Amino acid sequence: MNPEKLLLQIVLLYAKDNTEHADILVANELCRLLKAKTAAIFFKDLSGIYHLRFSGSMYSIKLTSAHWKEVEQTLTSASCEDPCTFGPWQIPAFGETETYWTGCALFSAKSALQGYIVLGRSDTPWDEKTIALLQEIAKTIATILAIRMKLSISEYEKKKLIERLSFNDKRLRNLFDASPNMIYTCDGDDYITSMNPAGLKALGYTSQDEVVGKPFKDLLYNPEDRNIGLKRLFETGSTTYETILKGKDERLIYCMESIAVLRDENGKIRELQGIINDITERIEKERELWRTNLELSELYSKLQKTQELMVQQEKLASIGQLAAGVAHEINNPLGFLKSNHSVTSKYVTKAQELIKELIESGLSEQSSAIANQLNKQIEKIQEILTESAEGFERIIRIVADLKTFSRIDQGEGFAEYDVNAGIESTLVVAWNEIKYVADVEKQLGPIPKIMARGNELNQVWLNMLVNAAQAIEGAKKEERGRIIIKTWEERGHIMVSIKDNGPGIPESIRKKIFDPFFTTKEPGKGTGLGLSISYNIIVETHKGQIIVNTEPGAGTEFVVILPITLTH
Amino acid sequence: MDISARVAEFNQKNQLAKLFIENPEAEKWIVHIDGELDLHSSADAQSLLEALLEEMPGRSTLIFNLGKLVYISSTGVGLFANLVVAANKRRIQVILQKLQPNVEQVFSLLGILSYFTIEK
After folding, report:
1. pLDDT tens for residues A193-204?
2. Alpha carbon distance A187, A212 (integer Å)
3. Which residues of A207-363 form beta strands (DSSP E)?
4. Can you tell me the mean pLDDT for A361-373?
5. Mean pLDDT of all residues in A127-148
6. Strand order, beta sheet including A61-63
């Protein structure tokens, strides 16, 4: 037979059948054409499995490694370049023993593939020509086998890849569907492309269609948060940040969101992927805790302030008792001293008149000189008495202050009182103190009358106005000062503000200004009781408040708050 | 570690938040927090500011200028809540200044805005 025709025949058989059965058909054909009883192809594929395909069989057979070794040993001397003959031999475990065998390796020793082709018969030994032809046949079959094995490997890999991809897909799908966390994806423009059932449920939607295609920021309570989240994402590649989602029913969901970005090979954003954890419950608990702590802390501060106030009032009360005792004790001797002083004054005046009469009645020159001298002495006594009168006035004023402070005059009851009118009349009294140092601006608003002790409140206004004037005077500024008096009604209270543009109260003494006997005025100008008394009158008697707003260099404002509840 | 070193460490660690402290008057501190107060930076800021409170004398004032704070997490709000509680104990007044609307919104949503002294 023409060797070329035979090789062509083999190639055609392979071309017609691309399954492993083609090897068996080829073996059958070799038996027929080369007059062999048995033709067999052995090979080891890339996954290490040993195959046997031989003539007359129906299927490809897998050989055990022990059988393969047997084949290998028999054919150990065979190579592609050097076919061999041997026998008698039997294909391990299969077929019959034949006397004459010829075989040839399919692949070179260097190849990763291994295999042999053998022909066997018992009637005639193999001739040189057929052995040489077998070598050619081996080359052809080896080439086709190698290609087919590689193809089958890639087919296998493809199949495995598809399996793996489908598993991955299932795995991701399961994660997406079964996760208790919200999971969503968005396109590069941040429009939603999918959302898992947990996400839809949390937001109150029933179908993906309700959210897909919407911009993600539409789901946020504060859409600006999204820009911050995305800015972080693009800077770092992934981000976890807190945000607040708004459900379909406007319910707010506090969330911890992680976003990742998926880019294509050109760096363009393919997809944004987010996982959102609902932390509403945790935040609610924390918020309760913060609120409770803040409330407790506020109460604690109030308690501290109340305690300070109580201590201050206690101080005032004890000072008041002391003052009452002192005032009472001083008042009696002061009464007769004052009375004696005025009587003495009268007697001295009378004595001066008598001396005058004596001189006018005509005295000797010597007596006249003595009388004149006597007159001068009496004039000096007069001066001393006048000075003493000032001293008495001052003592009387101090005792009066002490008496008011200690509420000795407390017999008077509450009566209807017009705050604006009270301020007007007080201004008349205080005018002498104010007129040289400051202008007064009145902004007296429409306010109801209240039940109050008018004379006491007037004393408060007087104290504050005099203080303001003295503060402005003390600042020794070039220009005239300004005192603004304002009254208005606010939430059931009458508010009185007396504001000056004096030097303000230094921080260091701010806490002491209501303390009794505390004064910054020079001796003789103040008793240090004014504000203390005012405090008592407003806070104790009238259940009001005094607030001091002061700024060093800019001035001081006293705000008196009186409840209107005592009105008719 | 002194406060300025801690501030430097904070700014180094938290790239998205910037903090600096001024002490313009004897009893007045101004803390500027710019950028974003998230979970991590809030925790860092809290320990730093607690240390600052320790150093401040009683009855002084601590002002937060939040004009450039663009984002706050719930932990950030918690930071201020905790600080006010700590400050109250020492009679230190805490004032929050210039809150951005979205930041103020978070305080308000959490229902604790009224416990803070807020200045425009």
Report:
1. 999 999 999 999
2. 10
3. 238-246, 252-263, 269-278
4. 87
5. 89
6. A61-63, A50-54, A38-44, A114-121, A100-105, A84-86
A236-250 burial by CB neighbour count: b if 16+ within 10 A, else e?
A: eeebbbbbbbbeeee
B44 touches chain A (CB under 8 A): no
Contact criterion met (CB < 8 Å) for A293 and B39: no
d(CA B73, CA A155): 54
At A257, the pLDDT band (50, 70, 90 cuts) reads: very high
Chain A contact for B71, CB < 8 A? yes
- Please tell me the number of Cα atoms within 13 Å of A45 on its side-chain side: 21
- Rounded Cα gap, residues A498 and A482, in angstroms: 10
> Within an 8 Å CB–CB cutoff, is residue B59 touching chain A?
no
Residue A94 has a pLDDT of 79
Which of A241, A252, A300 lies closest to B109 in CB terms?
A252
**pLDDT for the residue B94:** 93
User: If we measure between CA atoms, which residue out of A217, A176, A230 comes closest to residue A200?
Assistant: A176
Q: Is B84 on the interface with A (CB under 8 A)?
A: yes
> What integer best gives the mean pLDDT of chain A?
86
| CA A507/CA A369 separation, integer angstroms | 65
Residue A290 has its nearest CB partner, among B81, B88, B106, at B81
Give the residue from B37, B59, B109, B117 with the most A CB atoms within 10 Å of its CB, the best one to mutate. B109
> How close B16 gets to chain A, by Cα (Å)?
9
Quickly count: other Cβ atoms within 10 Å of residue A216's Cβ: 25
Helix (H) or strand (E) holding A90: none
d(CA B24, CA B30): 8
B96, amino acid identity: L
Of B39, B81, B89, the CB nearest to A294: B81
Q: Output phi, psi for A422, to 5 deg.
A: -60, -40
Residues 6+ apart with CB under 8 A from A4: none
Q: Which residue among A222, A294, A297 places its CB closest to the CB of B105?
A: A222
Interface A-B: count of C-beta contacts within 8 A: 64
In B13-101 the beta strands, taken as DSSP E runs, fall at 17-25, 28-37, 61-65, 69-72, 93-97
Query: How far apart are the C-alpha atoms of A233 and B9, rounded to whole Å?
Result: 24
- Is 80 exceeded by the pLDDT of residue A521? no
Question: What's phi and psi for A438, nearest 5 deg?
Answer: -150, 155
Question: Structure pTM?
Answer: 0.53
Residue of A nearest to B76 (CA): A242
Q: Is B81 on the interface with A (CB under 8 A)?
A: yes
CB contact under 8 A, B74 and A225: no
On whether any CB of chain A is under 8 Å from the CB of B13, the answer is no
Collapsed DSSP state (helix, strand, coil) of residue A222: coil
Contact B112 A287 (CB under 8 A): yes
In angstroms, the CA A7 to CA A13 distance is: 10
User: Which percentage of chain A shows pLDDT scores above 70?
Assistant: 92
| For B41, nearest residue in chain A (alpha carbons) | A241
Q: What is the pLDDT of residues A443-457, one digit of tens each?
A: 999 999 998 887 788
Give the pLDDT confidence score for residue B18 in this predicted structure: 94
For residue B85, the model assigns a pLDDT of 93
Question: Quick one: pLDDT at residue A489?
Answer: 93
